[in-house]
Amino acid sequence: MVTEQKIQMVDLKSQYEKIKQEVDKGIQDVINNTAFINGPAVKEFQKDLEDYLKVKHVIPCANGTDALQIAMMALGLKPGDEVITANFTYVATAEVIGLLGLTPVLVDVNKNTFDINIEAIEKNITPKTKAIVPVHLYGQCCDMEKIMALAKKHNLFVIEDVAQALGADYIFTDGTRKKAGTIGTVGCTSFFPSKNLGCYGDGGAIYTNDDELAAKLRMVAHHGQSKQYVHDVVGVNSRLDSIQAAVLKVKLKHLDTYAAARNRAADFYDKAFAGCKKLITPARAKNSTHVFHQYTLQLVGINRDALREFLSSKNIPSMIYYPIPLHMQNAFKSDRYKSGDFPVTEKLCANVISLPMHTELNEETLKYITDGVLEFCNK
Fold it and tell me: What gap in Å lies between CA 186 and CA 74, rounded to an integer?
């Protein structure tokens, strides 16, 4: 019975059990050769990810937040420069902007696809604007064709935050496709364990097709060194360790299969909730595939806390991604923003709820989850 098993938001244990032999061998190989930092596993994973993404350069690093910081440092952004990003996102996107003394310029998102609003970007471009950070939230791409056109028009860098959408394809109007993160100036991703491609600790990567920028990214990530003990810039120490690379090398081979499993789960959710007017299922952009890092509903006339409590009583977990807009967080409060300035973001923060989404969901579990949600909605 489903109720006798603990339903997980992300079931990493069951996923591991299916690839245990490969993963255990990869980890043991690292231990046997004792090349724990920048060992063969890191170089092999880097090459495999470059091939998968069809990108010239992948620079592994310690985590996704570091990836964003290293990208902004390598691009030469200076204190006072403005960087436009979405208000509806995890704090890390804006955190590194503030950490580097840059000015985060927050803009609203689209209510159906949760991606950054193109018109809002254009309205907020000033002579101080130097970069745009589109966030491919929940697993599908922002409208990169329009964003790149804006960037070209205003001579701006584009730093793609791909932490939740690794493996998604952006589809251009001429039908060509590129992987999320390979379209802008630079792409940044996270390998946090719960991500679609997650390691068994912390990890991240940066990718670009620009040879000169790739050299700068590597330099910044490795203490600003151009060669050993020669430090040309002030850098950071951000490395993907070999054990995590060994895990990622195995899991990368399964990434598309994982995405297909997540889409099957999303399809089940969509069909189950189709007739319920109190639930708005996530829209799928026409110009992007979806890898469903999260399955996020919008609630209509429902007490979210009561729903979560009801689901919890049935051992069904849920999460809120994200409950507080960035402009209302103490860290980012500014005289330039007030309550009501971001109507879509503020409404989403008050009404979204995410249900379990991972590669191991079966129909019995999905039916138990959806029946629970609908039972509450029909009360």
Answer: 10
